[in-house]
């Protein structure tokens, strides 16, 4: 059994105390004062037999509080000799004085048991150790169950969300194949559009699978990056191209502010592509029809480039602006929306792996602006 770091067990007399007490406290000044008074009173009682007082901080050992079914602190428990006896309330010292004579009367039996080698103190120590193990096993079980529930949700959502892009790819390819089977080829421009659409949807599927695989590795897994010289303007153009159809469908506008002299960054192109895709996808999703999406990049310092993507959607409540970067977190309003609750958490991991920062500025009903930084490519 562990004791509070600030309070070690107090033992007087022999090495096997016939009276064992546990005092549960918290960090409130009143609780600390009760501890001081109880220690002082035990010294004043001057027992002619050994006792052991162990102080337990409930914040550090909650499983023991659960084991003894405590409802309040401070609380003094006589765990040996059995049966257990619990004293609680603001007058612990008075209760201790009243109970002490009865506890003294129970010690001769205890000493007799001790002489035969059957000292229940050992059993108490085993109980504490088992309680500790049970508590930790419960924590591990809850974590594993939550992971299983999350994976079940991912599988269900993935099966649903993959259906649309797969159908689009299939229809485009079938149309081209059908025209060839009739020896009546589509116009070159139409065929190119269908192939482009199929490639776009294939990238959507690839992105979904990539995000899921990265998330499945867990937030504690090390993210492997392969940084190199990267031109953000070129990467942005590659990312925005397959999203143009969705933007036009919602009659949205995209305004960019990317200076021509923006320096290259030192980053993993595929990982940064994931970040840009996720943030732009969210901007399109939450910007209303006819709304405006803004993309800006600036040389923030000699060592950092900052990328900002903003929308004029519903915004994010202030109390949730840190939580949105946590694994599996979704705003209550988005529970019925498509998505996995992993995109922003994955973006956070990627940017941190580049020693950058990712954050959001947002006001309800006024939109959100996500910013992230990347290191400048050394020259």
From TrEMBL:
- Its gene name is sasA
Q: What are the recorded GO MF terms, alphabetically?
A: ATP binding; phosphorelay sensor kinase activity
NCBIfam families in the record: PRK09303.1
In the record, biological process GO terms are:
circadian rhythm
Instruction: Write the record's keywords in alphabetical order, separated by commas.
Output: ATP-binding, Biological rhythms, Kinase, Nucleotide-binding, Phosphoprotein, Transferase, Two-component regulatory system
UniProt subunit comment: Homooligomerizes. Interacts with KaiC. Participates in the KaiABC clock complex, whose core is composed of a KaiC homohexamer, 6 KaiB and up to 6 KaiA dimers. SasA and KaiB(fs) compete to bind to KaiC.
Give the EC number.
Answer: 2.7.13.3
Which species is the source of this protein?
uncultured Synechococcales cyanobacterium
Instruction: Spell out the protein name for this chain.
Output: Adaptive-response sensory-kinase SasA
From the broadest rank down, the organism's phylogenetic lineage runs: Bacteria, Bacillati, Cyanobacteriota, Cyanophyceae, Synechococcales
